[in-house]
Amino acid sequence: EVQFVESGGGMVQPGGSLRLSCTASGFTFSAYDMSWVRQAPAGKGPEWVSGINTRDGTTFYADSVKGRFTISRDNAENTMYLQMDSLKPEDTALYYCARNALPVDFCSVTPCFETDLGQGTQVIVSS
């Protein structure tokens, strides 16, 4: 069974930082590109935030987070991270890690991740 356990969320002031972690199990982690996605309140669908290639670690970001967020992964530990700096109120959301259904290169132009998500970790950016 594919499982994800996300952690590291919390409440921070605008301009603050958080580091999210995701530990995966139930599949060969190193065989998949992986992504972070987020879902804001008010019933919006999940939004792709960032992804990382498993072959060479190439990273991709949504325009809304580029230059502020950094994605990384440790295949030996089946773990992925998201370092979030210069946080803004509009970053407030439930953050999930997701296994890619398509190569991460496609994520900026088409839905690319599997929708079987874990519990997520809540990020609140507020003064």
What does this structure look like?
With 127 residues, the protein is mostly beta strands. The chain is 0% helix and 43% strand. It has no helices and ten strands. The strands form two sheets. It has a six-stranded mixed β-sheet, with no helix packed on it. The chain has a four-stranded antiparallel β-sheet with strand order 1-3-8-7, with no helix packed on it. A hairpin with a 4-residue loop joins strand 7 and strand 8. The protein is globular. It starts with a strand and ends with a strand. The model has no long low-confidence stretch (mean pLDDT 95).
Summarize, please.
The chain has 127 residues and is mainly β.
Name the descriptors.
four-stranded antiparallel beta sheet, mainly beta
What are the SSEs and their pairings?
Layout: E1 3-7, E2 10-12, E3 18-25, E4 34-39, E5 47-52, E6 59-61, E7 69-74, E8 79-84, E9 93-99, E10 121-125
Parallel strand pairs: 2-10
Antiparallel strand pairs: 1-3, 3-8, 4-5, 4-9, 5-6, 7-8, 9-10
Mean of pLDDT: 95
Which strand order spans the largest sheet, edge to edge or round the barrel?
2-10-9-4-5-6
Please identify the oligomeric state.
single chain
Number of E strands: 10
Helix content: under 10%
